[in-house]
């Protein structure tokens, strides 16, 4: 795992955008991007859009996107559904058509098989090249709450009260936050070829240190990242504040040969 402590949210966004763009360039239009929703990736997404609009970005023609998770029980087209959110915040502004952006299907009739069908779609696309991830204040990854199997695949899950409280800011009140979600499992996430975890703000410091420096445990789902061969963690100073080895991580990054990349 490569942890890169940075000075600001803007630095996280710039380096995050570099990683995603370099994947798109390397795969010459055939890249498969795994996209997270939530607040943390938004500055990175805005930076990608800024570069695209300035004519500085690679072509997104042919790029395919898969979201991590989706609420169950929202009316179709609800602005806080993750399908609507990712279109608004990233893929529409980048000109990626809706039929190349997929998420787990939350329709009630197909719910028992929705996880399996999503796994099949990910495999059929050749797997995810780079998966953007945030981390929950309780250590969740996607919507894999503490206690989730480290080998889990896409399935229906129930949110913790902490996560529903965290996400109430996107809705009128906590009562409007759905209780159920479909989420890629931790085992699904581990299949992506490169994992890009973004963490900003003091509210993430405890979860980040447990994920990076604590034991691998279902009690901190994000600790499963320690099992993946190619993880990049970009964090600002406040999110990094709980990391015992943060100075070493920065030294390693500063001493890195430029040809190595992230
Ligand atoms: P946030 O959510 O980016 O909105 O803090 C992260 C997460 O819940 O995974």
What would your notes on this structure say?
The protein is an alpha/beta fold and 262 residues long. It has a single domain, classed as 3-Layer(aba) Sandwich (Rossmann fold). Helix content is 33%, strand content 16%. The protein has eight helices and ten strands. The chain has helices spanning 9-26, 42-53, 82-94, 111-124, 161-167, 186-190, 205-213, 246-254, and strands spanning 2-5, 32-35, 64-67, 69-72, 101-102, 130-133, 155-158, 180-183, 194-199, 231-235. A seven-stranded parallel sheet has the order 1-10-9-6-2-3-5, with helices on both faces. Strands 4-8-7 form a three-stranded antiparallel sheet, with helices on one face. Strand 9 (194-199), helix 7 and strand 10 form a beta-alpha-beta unit. Helix 1 (9-26) crosses helix 2 (42-53) and helix 2 packs parallel to helix 3 (82-94). The radius of gyration is 17 Å and the shape is globular. The mean pLDDT is 97. The structure holds 2-phosphoglycolic acid (PGA).
Keywords:
single chain; 262 residues; alpha/beta; Rossmann fold; 33% helix; 16% strand; binds 2-phosphoglycolic acid
């Amino acid at each position: 795992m490569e942890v890169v402590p940075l000075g600001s949210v803007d630095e996280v966004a710039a380096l995050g955008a570099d990683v995603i763009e370099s994947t798109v360039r390397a795969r010459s239009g055939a890249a498969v991007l795994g996209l997270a929703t939530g607040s943390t990736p938004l500055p990175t997404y805005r930076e990608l859009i800024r570069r695209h609009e300035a004519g500085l970005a690679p072509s997104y023609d042919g790029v395919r996107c898969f979201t991590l998770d989706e609420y169950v029980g929202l009316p179709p087209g609800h602005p806080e559904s993750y399908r609507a959110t990712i279109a608004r915040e990233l893929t529409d502004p980048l000109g990626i058509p809706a039929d190349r952006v997929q998420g787990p299907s939350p329709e009630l009739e197909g719910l028992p098989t929705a996880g399996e069908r999503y796994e099949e779609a990910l495999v059929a696309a050749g797997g995810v090249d780079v998966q953007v991830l945030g981390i929950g204040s309780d250590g969740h990854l996607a919507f894999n709450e503490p206690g989730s199997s480290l080998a889990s695949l896409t399935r229906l899950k129930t949110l913790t009260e902490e996560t529903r409280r965290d996400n109430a800011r996107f809705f009128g009140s906590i009562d409007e936050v759905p209780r159920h979600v479909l989420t890629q499992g931790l085992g699904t996430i581990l299949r992506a070829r490169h994992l890009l975890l973004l963490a900003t703000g003091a509210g993430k410091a405890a979860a980040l240190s447990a994920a990076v420096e604590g034991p691998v445990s279902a009690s901190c789902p994000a600790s499963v990242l320690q099992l993946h061969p190619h993880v990049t963690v970009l964090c600002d100073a406040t999110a990094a504040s709980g990391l015992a080895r943060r100075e070493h991580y920065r030294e390693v990054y500063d001493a890195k040969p430029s040809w190595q990349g992230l």
